[in-house]
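Researcher: I'd like a structural prediction for the single chain below. Treat it as a standalone chain; there are no partners to consider.
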Amino acid sequence: MQVGGRKLWARVEDVPDLQRALGAEVPDWALERAGGAVKRKAAARSPLNDLLLRYARTHTTVTPQRVAQAFGLGAAVAEGALAELAGAGSLVDLGAAGWMEPTVLTRVRHRSLDRARAAVAPVPPAALQRLVLERAGLDEPGGGVDALAEALAALEGVWLPAGLWESVVLPARVVDYRPAMLDELIAAGEVVWQARPVSDAASRSGSARGRTGAEDVPAPGEIAFFPTDSALAPVAEETITPGEPEAAAGRETGVTGEELWRLVREGAATGRSFEPVRRALVPAAGTRTAPPSRRVRSRRGRRLMMGMPGSGEVTAAGRLSSVVTSTSSWVRLSRAPAGDEEQAIAQVESLLDRYGVVCRDLALAFSGVGGLGPLMPVLRRMEETGMVLRGSFIEGLGPAQFAERESVERLRSLSHGPAGAAETPVVLDLKDPACLVGRGVPWPEPVLPAGLGESAGGHGEETSGPPVRRQGASVIVLGGAPVLYASENLKVLISYTSAREELARALTALAADRQAMFARQGTAAIRRRTVVESLNGVTALEPTVSDLLRQAGFVRDPRGMRLAGGPSGATWR
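Model: Treating it as a single chain, here is the predicted structure.
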């Protein structure tokens, strides 16, 4: 057949359409053999449009000029037919580039994304840790209520043990943090806090348990903060007034203190301040943890005085009343009105803001929705629209990683930027949301600088395997990499650097962090003794180890090297 001035071969079944669409001359025998084909074809579109659509399915972009040249048509005729197909949804209009068939466009997009993913070289995990510290403000903590507001917005929807917020997380991000600053934001209606049911919290985190002693008020298991304009935030409803037989109109009546506190712990109510949680976290008299064993005990007060009540004892009912009345008002909470898709979008945006990258490990640890699966539909759409990129951006975090283009560029710059001497050591609690060591940033092999502890032999048993993620345990990172691990009471230290100068800087930062914590705790820290007993299994009394600890501010103790602090943060020697 002659088509567009060229001799081409065609299937016999297509001869009628070619003749009607292009007016091409065809042999009579071909028309006779294809006589039934015309009746079998559906009349959904004209023969010319059907021919052009078949052409588009085997080419990337189609333009009127290419179609006119291929089939010997006028440019105006070809453009009109292509526009008609685009109007029917059979072609996608690409503007000046022309038109493209939808399935072809999908294949082109997928191949382009695969090529873009392959072109991105992964960076070390330390670069991700540096990015997270930078976004959390832990490299340069701010001050004032504005810094606190920014920190709470970044930690939107993060569930943490109730006692961790004001003891570790918020003071690490706001240098002059005071409880009144948090109460100010809550009372102004800018932030709402919600507790998670103890059973749910305990199932997710072994450390998030409330006390349930008979003489104590059970504390909430885990707590999260939400900006009140967030799609994830619970909605504050009617005011709850405990103990009032007749309350004003619009207020709920008949709620006892026990019922109110149960609603709070189940996440169904919240207060206009954080003071109730603080009071519930304070151990009641007589419910202190068992003291360590002693070899010398006083004999005074063990006989006749043992059965006499203390002058300042507070009953369980009195403690509950103190907790419930410590805030100006209580309100009932209901579930966020946003649908599942809107909440998934908010979760993705929150993870991207906080970590720069969304992957399986981070979503499982911090998303609160059960991992990456519920977020994948949103992430795929964001990738198709170009809002995020997909690839292996971080070594060891798998192929399903999503990040914004700006975050990828920042990760590259951090991986090649200055570290080590130019970085300031950062002390992180292992349960801080900004700590990725052990969940994204792997623990390296323990190592000591040359010449340190050689006279005492090799490593001890505590250096085998990764450290346990207990609340109160810390890691000091330098340049995004873990340099030193410290157990909750500093009894065990583990070094991960062979550079003596880096280890010395990490020990100094650890001592300063503990002194600042003692200063915040005030008189509660007077009797606390913090003694380092070993470093990578080497006794702290070994001369080279004790000299290094002494330079950081520790002093000799019968058990090791001690760091003791008073309420002012001064070291007692």
